[in-house]
Structure formats: C-alpha cells, structure tokens
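Async update (no meeting this week)

Hi team, since we skipped the sync, here's where things stand on the single-chain job. The sequence we agreed to prioritize is pasted below, unchanged from the tracker. I ran it this morning and attached the output directly underneath so nobody has to dig for it. Comments welcome in thread, and please keep replies under the output.
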Amino acid sequence: MILFLLFLGLSIQAQDKSVAPVNPVALKYKATHHGYLGPVKTVDQFEFDRQGRLVTETGDSPKTFKYLKDAILVEQFGQVFTYKLNEKNQITGYTVASSDDTGSYTYDDNGNLIEEITTSDGDISRLTYTYDDQNRLISTTDWQDDQAYTTNYSYNGTPENLMIRQTREFDRTATVDFVYNNGVMVNYIFMGADNYEDVVLDDYGNIISFYSPAYDTTQEYVITYYQ
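Output:
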C-alpha cells in the first residue's frame, strides 16, 4: 500500500499547487495536498492542525498522523508506517512496524519526485515521473514486469483557469480533462461531458457545492476554518 507525498522542497514551482496541481507527493499529509486552500480545520473526512497538517482521516481507510522532527508516523488498521524525512524535509522512504513492507523515494535537483519503489507482501512496484521546464508533471510510468504503462499530462491556461489533459498511452479512450482554479479542481471532463456544474466556491476558493449532471444531484461540503 502506498500513501502519497510530503514536499517542502527547494523549487517554488515544484511546490506550488496552483501551477502544478497534479505533481505527485510521497504522502498526502497537508491540506494543500488534498486541494484545499486557507486555514482549513475540518472538511469531509479530514481534520487538520493549525499548520495545515493532517491529524486524522476517517472513512473507509481511517488514519492518524503524528509529526516528529525527522519522521511522520501514520497509523492505519493497527499498523504504523514511519516516513523518514531528510534535511530538506523530503520523505525519503518508509517502513512498516512488524512487516517487511518498505518504500523509497528519489527527487531531482528541483525537489520533484522522480521515482518511488515500494514492496508489499514481497511484491515490488515502481513508478517514475518526468517534468517539463516549469517543474510540472508531464508523465507517470508504472513499470510492471518490464512493461511500461505511461500516462501523459498537458497544460493549457493560467492558474486561475488551468486545464490539464490526462492521456493514457495504453488506453486512448481514457482521456480526461481536469480544470483547476488556483490548485482547486472545479471540473473534470470525460468524453466531452462536464462532471461539475454550478460550482460554488467560498472566500478561500474551496468548493462548497456543485451540481453533478451524471447523478442529477447537488453535492455540498461543510468546511470549518481556524480563526
């Protein structure tokens, strides 16, 4: 099992979700990693501390988070994952108590995650990532039995109205367009159809409601903030 990243690294653009909202992370432990802006306290199944760090996650995969100087501890289903931090506050790997499962993460000079290798129950998984000259993700490759399954990303627009096209080389019919407003996903378009309509944002720019034409329902979110 792999959770998704920390990055507080060197490059502003590699870190700026408004510019590069789909850049991968080794562990999604911050509000911004989940696409939320401002001093979020609670939303949906997440609770964050005043530093914007995830404290608890409920739902189908409940987790608790504890932050140490050189590590992040994540407890899930009775197992404790220890994510190690280097001097740049980058996650370099994880171990699991009472298990041989491990993970390792490699970064380029700009602080972008370029490779992750994980082992789970003896099975090894490897993902590699490439970026453009603006430190934006342009491809993800999942290596399985020496076969490469690559997903490509292209960008159009500004941070306030940024469309990212995701295309799988192994399945061209699975092309999806994601639309972001300053790092917050406000729509995704599949087979030419909008999935978010009548989107309402709060003062911080987070979605508090949208209409789903596919399900003919309005989805609403209650977000609380630190004062």
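Quick observations from my side:
The chain has one domain: 31-225.
The two ends are 36 Å apart (CA to CA).
Reply here if anything looks off.
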